[in-house]
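dude i think i finally got it to work??
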Amino acid sequence: MMSLGLPESVRACLFDLDGVLTRTAVVHAAAWKETFDDFLRDRDGEGFRPFSPQDYDRYVDGRPRDDGVRTFLASRGVRLPEGGADDPPGRESVRGLGERKNELLLEKIHKEGVEAYPGSVRYVHAVREAGLRTAVVSSSRNCRDVLVSVGIEDLFDVRVDGVVAAERALPGKPAPDTFLAAARDLGLEAADCAVFEDALAGMDAGRAGGFGYVVGVDRTGQARELRRHGADTVVTDLAVLPEAGAAAPGATGTPGGAGGFGAGGAPSGSGTSTSTGPGTAPPAPSGQEDSP
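look at this
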């Protein structure tokens, strides 16, 4: 079996979407910044304190959209009415700001395209070839559309996203409920599953759920915080996980062995980036999503 850098006890891998599988986290962050900066500028004038990368990591990343709005605004001592489903984008309500963020997100996706991380795609293929089950767990209601747009929907046995969470009334991250639901849908216990996350809220969910292994994916230089929030190991890309995980007790295989991931994270016969270019129709707007 190809080295996966996971304990032998792991029977399934549960992957977050934005920042782990796809390069959409930076797009989410830009949409959040524009949304909150516009709101704060209108409220406080030109001397307002902008939304920062630290605000994103602490209050928004990985949370369902409305939770992200509430949590960040609470950090600034601001409380808005919840609003309703018919609130237009930009109305001064939780729902209105969330809808404005989603509107900006979809504009940016349409303009810039969506791309999957090549190392992550190769790793998911390796996981399936090793006989492990796979699930994608995201707060996003746009999750399926993004998976389809980059051509990787068929790599996952189970999808628990914002649509499923709403149907089942599952609380979002940092609660572990969506990850636990994915494990149940695969017919497994939490201890049988590894969680792959880039958000601090996702780390908290993995730790709270009692999962067998939690992998932090550090795309933004927050390895220390990912560990503090519960990561068993932290990597900059899933392609290097076999090396990082080889030292873990019971880790599968050996780093750099035959059939492994090779230089630059590329295994034998490595593929290329899977993406949709600018101008590709973006996911249809709606509901909550991973708040990166």
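The first strand starts at residue 12 and ends at 15.
im so relieved honestly
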